[in-house]
Amino acid sequence: MKKLKEVFLYNLDILAFIILVTTKILIFGKNIETGYFSYKSLFYPVIASVLLIVCISILFTMATRRKILFTANLLISILLIADLNYFRYFKDVISMPVILNGFQLGAVKSSVGDLFNLTDLLYFLDLIVILFIHKYQKIKLRSLNISSLRLKTKLIAFISIFLVAGLINFKEINALSKEQPKLITTMYNKVYIAKQLGNVNYHYLDIFNSVSNAISKRTPVSDKTKEEVKSFLQTNSQKSTKNLKGVGENKNLITIQVEALQAFAINSKIDGKEITPNLNRWIKRSAYFNNYFYQTSSGGTSDAEFLSNNSLYPSASGSVTYLYSGNEFNALPKALKDKGYTTTAFHGFRETFWNRNVIYPKYGFDTFYGEKSYNIDEEIGLGLSDKSFLNQSIEKMKTLKEPYYSFLVTLTSHYPFDNVDKYGDFNVGEFEGTFLGNYLKSIHYTDEQLGVFLDNLEKEGMLDNSIVVLYGDHYAIPKDHQNELAKFLNKDSFTDLEWMELQKVPMMIHFPKDEYKGTRKMYGGQIDLYPTLSNIFNLETDNVMGKDLFNSKDGKVIFRNGSFSNGNIFYLSQQNSFYDIKTGKKLDETDALQNEKESAVSELEYSDIILKHNLIKKFNTDNK
Ligand code: GP9
Ligand code: MN
């Protein structure tokens, strides 16, 4: 009994730390709740994150251990309060890129007072209790004359606790990665990580990701490689006499990136009814690219935005918007801004999602109208409905100083397309109640809203002086639902080649008076949008990796995994095989094909080097 009491007293500071800090983090979890919440499932990862601090403190003397635990508690409390206030404004938690980019808080600064609740100070309350506990422990241990543990015992305790906490966290992180495969590397939904793993674990991961990225950026790049990259870009960006050169000069540019708009839905019918009647109508009045692929990687929507506005490849894992938010970019909005354009991004969802509030200014957008700038009067799926979003956006666009670049990103047709009651009536026949059927309903809804939007632009006379671009961001139907898509397309199954050929998104460019309309079969992808627009708007562009779709002779599209196509052959990297697109037959690898394969890989590498070493900044300084 006496022994037990001694052990209790000896570990009292640790026990108090574990109980009080765990409780605080759990309460914080409840405070940032935006939907389902369970203390039970949050308990294990939270206690693991606390134990990781405990095990380190054990290695020190009693006095230092108390200091470490007290300081850790204090820091965690400050962090929780800061996150809580940040959450109240942004519906997100603070991250390293946000801190390193100077917060970009703007509006928040003035409202810090409004955001702060006096009750937030309760997070500090236990620190006073802890001071008493420490005092009590000190006196008691002295009176009982208990001496410090030996180093060997401390080491054993450290290793055991570390292993237990590490294992719990490993299990939890693994489970989360299975549920949301790209979440941990891309950090696209930070608040979700904090909700599932606890705020302290979230910050561990955020720091780990930032540090490992900073280390990998430090590996030096030789001057030779830099020159190689530079000369590739120069050759690739070479300008000559061109079709459509400058036809858009001083006109507005309106770009609409549509969530999960996949090409198979275009010009296709179900039960005799068109799925996208409005886009089908507008496509006829536009230059329509029907062999245009999405080239996104794990960064999803944000990769599509990055590719289309920067003409560089997204990073192989993670998201450029998070990993490279400190970089300099020569993006499309910046080039237009330099020509006197007003540049504005519109997206009716949380400003911090995909780190947009940090990255958009880096691309050169003067203004970003996010969730806070909209009246959230109708919600479908993830948030503000496309109908309301597009209606409110057109009103905002009317007030912009011309010429302007307006970049709109829609939301409603987002996976898992299960808000079917709100998409309106669209009969999908035998696909009723299936994943594919639900998608068709949701994309039919979005098509209707896009139709209204485009018609309104026309009615308002806004089309006379604008060039309108519309494209899909990425796939809608994941591979595990391929059977439904096969059925819809009257096939039994797909070969790998057929599946790749289905990864197209529609892309149309509408010119005033329906000029240059017609379908263009050139093989290309999202990386080509910026160079294509550069030619149309007569911009100075030196750092693009894509091609001008109106002037290139040869098709080309390279995917992040190393697969590529030139419109005649398709190389599938997962099989290391070449296919003839027309016949679907496998081809032998010739020297020429091997060269193409190698150059695809080096292009991806060049793009990675540019991002990793912030080379755009270097090239810009060299050019000054
Ligand atoms: C939300 C939206 C979703 O802002 O852009 O991104 P996604 O999940 O499609 O990558
Ligand atoms: Mn998307």
What's the layout of helices and strands?
Layout: H1 2-10, H2 12-31, H3 39-58, H4 62-90, H5 96-100, H6 107-115, H7 122-144, H8 151-179, H9 183-186, H10 190-197, H11 199-218, H12 223-236, E1 252-258, E2 269-270, E3 273-274, H13 277-284, E4 287-289, E5 292-293, H14 300-310, H15 320-323, H16 332-338, E6 342-346, H17 356-363, E7 367-369, E8 379-380, E9 383-384, H18 386-398, E10 404-409, H19 435-459, E11 466-472, H20 482-488, H21 496-501, E12 507-510, E13 518-520, E14 524-525, H22 529-537, E15 557-558, E16 564-565, E17 569-572, E18 577-580, E19 586-587, H23 591-612, H24 615-623
Parallel strand pairs: 1-10, 1-11, 4-13, 5-14, 6-7, 6-10
Antiparallel strand pairs: 2-3, 4-12, 8-9, 11-12, 15-16, 16-17, 17-18, 18-19
Helix pairs in contact: 2-3, 2-4, 2-7, 3-4, 3-8, 4-7, 10-11, 13-19, 18-19
(2R)-2,3-dihydroxypropyl phosphate (GP9) binds at residues 300-301, 349, 353-354, 411, 414.
What labels describe this entry?
624 residues; alpha/beta; 5-stranded antiparallel β-sheet; 24 helices; 19 strands; binds (2R)-2,3-dihydroxypropyl phosphate; binds manganese (II) ion
Overview of this structure, please?
Helix content is about 50%, strand content about 10%. It has about 625 residues and is α/β, with parallel strands linked by helices. The strands form five sheets. It has an eight-stranded mixed sheet, sandwiched between helices. The chain is elongated, with a radius of gyration of 28 Å. The chain binds (2R)-2,3-dihydroxypropyl phosphate and manganese (II) ion. The site of manganese (II) ion has 6 residues, from helix 14.
